[in-house]
Write a structure and sequence with these properties.
There is one protein chain. The protein is an alpha/beta fold. It has helices spanning 22-32, 54-62, 77-89, 105-115, 132-140, 160-166, 189-202, 264-276, 282-293, 298-302, 307-321, 350-361, 387-405, and strands spanning 38-39, 100-103, 123-128, 144-149, 171-177, 205-209, 233-239, 252-258, 325-326, 335-336, 339-340, 363-364, 366-367, 379-382. Helix 1 (22-32) runs parallel beside helix 12 and helix 12 (350-361) packs across helix 13. The N and C termini lie far apart (54 Å).
Length: 406
């Protein structure tokens, strides 16, 4: 009997998430065949032996008896109050626990905050390159991502004048990912102040993705966007996944600050959506107060001699030793975004290179095109492997590039 194939939602045509796409599926096939794959496509600390701080695990265990019922739709009070205290310690004073929403990871927070905002055809300014979940969430919620360039030639820094030119009557907000994924760039205060003024002039919402805020190298400073945005709404996203190496806990949050009087209907809509999913994962929320209030172990990892610092240095050294690669040195986060020299490979294509590297050398990377850029000469790797394994990765890359150059 002939049956029609099941049709998918047409909105998915505009959604890409190649970080877990075809290359990742092929890597799984190779693993099933017995090959060992070095997976550099996802920033997943637990995969590389980074442990969640023990105090956070104990906080969850000790409160399991209080985790069996639904909690308030915004989250448990101790977790939200801990976010408030952290924000106030950073200079964001106009915030209370009522302004904080806990989610099942930052991913869910992005989804419900955009779902509450966007109507069909509404625009959101998104960086290029971006973390592709942002573009996907805009498309899934019937909006249109409009990209502002963070070009390799400018150190992946945005241009406030370009941002101003891109704003139309349909623009509802601007996304800032700082420290940046995939490039590792960190924006300085003057640049952020300019962008804040543009957002305030145009009365658009600032969506500040700051999940890597304490993952910094050298004397680089992270400036919280919420300290600069006063006359429009600012949404700051953070969570336990990266700084606290607790990806599997699925605990993230969004904290609203700035001008909220004109945002009452929007914030009510956000709360309605959080009510519909009843609540976020409760056990993981008990780790938030301990995480934010205690010793910040990430600093030991990012200082000279620390594992993240040394792995990043191995990436820098690997690129420097290569005949074919360039790198804008990452100042933050857990990624690098190397470029293959166009003068040596005028027909280079990131997807083909990634597949060749996977098939021949069993290293999985994310092609640069996955991050919504028009060029095809970059790729992203996570800097989570130890320095010895990272050196092995660059040896394998060089072998593949040697073969492509002949």
């Amino acid at each position: 009997m002939h049956t029609n194939s099941i049709q998918t939602n047409h909105i998915l045509e505009g959604v890409r998430y190649e970080i877990r796409g075809e290359l990742a599926h092929r890597a799984m096939e190779l693993e099933r065949q017995g090959y060992e794959i070095i997976s550099l496509n996802i920033g997943n600390p637990g995969l590389f032996g980074y442990r969640t701080p023990e105090t956070m695990r104990l906080a969850m265990i000790e409160n399991l008896s209080q985790s069996e019922a639904y909690c308030h739709q915004k989250g448990i009070f101790p977790a939200r109050e801990a976010v408030v205290m952290q924000q106030q310690d950073r200079g964001v004073m106009d915030i209370t626990a009522e302004d904080v929403f806990m989610g099942n990871g930052v991913s869910e927070c992005i989804d419900f905050t955009l779902r509450a905002l966007l109507n069909s055809g509404d625009e959101l300014l998104v960086p290029s390159p971006d973390y592709p979940l942002w573009s996907a969430a805009v498309a899934l919620n019937h909006g249109k991502p409009v990209y502002y360039n963070c070009l390799p030639e400018t150190g992946f820094q945005p241009d406030p004048d370009e941002i101003r030119r891109l704003i139309t009557p349909r623009t509802r907000g601007i996304v800032l990912i700082n420290p940046n994924n995939p490039t590792g760039s960190v924006y300085d205060r003057d640049l952020l102040e300019e962008i804040a003024r543009v957002a305030e002039e145009q009365q658009i919402i600032v969506f500040a993705d700051e999940i890597y805020d304490q993952m910094l190298y050298g004397d680089v400073e992270h400036v919280p966007m919420a300290t600069l945005v006063h006359d429009t709404l600012c949404a700051t996203y953070n969570g336990l996944s990266k700084i606290y190496r607790a990806c599997g806990y699925r605990v993230g949050w969004v904290a609203f600050s700035g001008e909220r009087e004109n945002a009452a209907d929007y914030l009510h809509a956000v709360e309605l959506l959080t009510s519909l999913r009843l609540c976020a994962n409760v056990p993981g929320q008990w780790a938030v107060q301990t995480a934010l209030g205690g010793y910040q172990s990430v600093r030991k990892l990012t200082e000279p001699g620390g594992r993240l610092y040394q792995s990043r240095q191995a990436v820098i050294d690997g690129v420097k030793a290569s005949k074919y690669l360039d790198l804008q040195v990452p100042d933050g986060a857990m990624y690098a975004f190397p470029r293959v020299r166009a003068d040596l490979f005028p027909d280079f294509h990131d997807q083909r290179f990634a597949l060749e590297l996977l098939e021949k050398k069993h290293v999985l990377i994310a092609p640069g095109g996955s991050f919504n850029v028009p060029y095809r000469d970059h790729f992203r790797i996570t800097t989570l492997p130890d320095e010895r394994e990272m050196a092995t990765v660059f040896e394998r890359m060089e072998d593949v590039l040697d073969s492509l150059a002949t």
